[in-house]
Amino acid sequence: DRVDAVFIGVGAGLPRFLEIPGEHLVGVYAANEFLTRINLMGAHDPFAHTPLVPVADRRVMVFGAGNTAMDAARSAVRLGAREVTIAYRRGRDEMPARREEIRHAEDEGVVLRTLVTPEEFLGDDEGHLVGVRLRGMELGEPGPDGRRRPRPRPDAIDTEPLDVAVVAIGNDPNPLLVRTVAGLERTERGTLVVDPETGATTHPRVWAGGDIVTGGATVISAMGAGRRAARAIDAHLRSTAAGGRG
Question: Does the domain spanning 6-12+171-245 belong to CATH 3.40.50.720?
Answer without folding.
Answer: no
